[in-house]
Amino acid sequence: MTQEEYATFESIEVSKEEILSCSYSSWYPILKNYTAKSRVIKPLPQTFLDYLGSDSIKLPPANNYDPELVINSDNEYSDWEDGEEADESHDNDDQNDQEDEEDTDANVKSITVEDFKDLHDQIIQGINDLGGAVTPKLNWSAPKDAKWIMPDNTIRCDHVNDIYLLLNTSDHIVDDLDYPFTGVDLEKGIDDDDEVKEKVEYELVLRKWLDVNPALEFRVFIKDNKIIGISQRDLNHYTYLESLKSEINDKIQSFVYETLIPELKDKLNLNKYIVDVYLPRPFNKAYIIDINPFSRKSSPLLFTWHELLLIDTFGDDEDNYELRLVNETNVGRFSKKEYSESQVPYDVVDASLNSQAMVELAREWDKLQMQQDQ
Question: Are 237 and 307 in contact (CB under 8 A)?
Answer without folding.
Answer: no
